[in-house]
Amino acid sequence: PLVLGIETSCDETGVGIVRGETLLVDAVASSVDEHARFGGVVPEVASRAHLEAMVPTIERASREAGIRLEDVDAVAVTSGPGLAGALLVGVASAKALAVALGKPLYGVNHLAAHVAVDIVEHGPLPEPTMAMLVSGGHSSLLLVPDVTHDIRSLGSTIDDAAGEAFDKVARVLGLPFPGGPYVDRAAREGDAAYIDFPRGLTSRRDMERHRFDFSFSGLKTAVARWVEARERDGQPVPVADVAASFQEAVTDVLTRKAVLACRENGVEDLLIGGGVAANSRLRAMAQERCDAAGIRLRVPRPGLCTDNGAMVASLGAQMVARGRTPSPLDLPADSSMPVSLVQA
Ligand code: ATP
Ligand code: MG
Ligand code: FE
Known about the structure:
The protein is an alpha/beta fold and 344 residues long. 45% of the residues lie in helices and 19% in strands. It has 13 helices and ten strands. It has helices at residues 32-36, 43-65, 84-101, 110-116, 118-122, 162-172, 180-187, 204-209, 217-232, 239-265, 280-293, 302-305, 310-321, and strands at 2-7, 12-19, 22-30, 74-80, 105-109, 129-134, 139-146, 150-156, 269-273, 296-298. It has a five-stranded mixed beta sheet, sandwiched between helices. A five-stranded mixed beta sheet has the order 8-7-6-9-10, sandwiched between helices. The protein is globular, with a radius of gyration of 20 Å. The model has no long low-confidence stretch (mean pLDDT 97). The structure holds adenosine-5'-triphosphate (ATP), magnesium ion (MG) and fe (iii) ion (FE). Fe (iii) ion is lined by residues 110, 114, 135, 274, 307. Residues 23-313 form the Gcp-like domain. Fe cation binds at residues 110, 114, 307. Its cofactor is Fe(2+).
């Protein structure tokens, strides 16, 4: 099926078009520069930017894909979770497009879409797949028997998301927003063993109660304290070493728990998705540890890890291919949609 997907859960206006498991186009307009001076995404600014970018981005996508909108078989849209006003722009646009074209509408879960995007990169998902979703708002381990309707959460962060920790540490180090890519770059010149930062929820006791949960707020605080102490002593802050040591602590915990989740559930395929999956150290460490454990690893290319429309189109195409019932046309935007609900 030819499916157009719309994504507006945060600050990216994404329109992707796929044909079955083939990506035709992934058009993204981001308002990230408008948020940078606030040090975080401002919801009203994001909603307004989506309104302005939506029609031009849909037009650009259909032009670059070389298709006519009349030819799409279905329209898919992120219906949650995300910023309420931002989601509303995407959902209203998708409804209008579906009605105008007389085509079915699928309101899908943003987190499931972060998983489904890898189908256009690496082909059909083994069933089940273990998915680790690490992004600006989420950090979860998901057992995925069927990405179109059965996703089970094994654990998630009990405080900050991994991407949030990257962004906060970047701020402490004086790096721009959003900080993940800057920490990644700075860390390449640093010594990852320079500081032994805490690995949250990995003590023996925590592994009983929070086996597949994560915690990054203690780590973030430890980094801030370490940097403050240095500054108080009038010493220069070794930015690259702090970035590398912080990044090592995050990736160590993430990959350790992901491999354990695979082992204990008898799953041989691990997929990592979400913005933090673009991190070079995470990708390298996950590959090493999966190789050692006999697990096949799949990670989408960095451009498909962060928010985009292709992920929504990819999940929509799976919905159509599997004969799932379309969503109602009065489909709501659900800012706190749980990951267990794949379709609205
Ligand atoms: P969610 O998907 O949970 O709703 P989101 O949509 O804001 O959150 P994404 O766009 O998937 O999140 O990811 C953005 C996050 O990924 C930001 O926190 C950003 O710093 C982080 N990120 C992007 N690239 C990298 C990188 N190379 N290393 C570490 N973090 C990164
Ligand atoms: Mg973003
Ligand atoms: Fe996302």
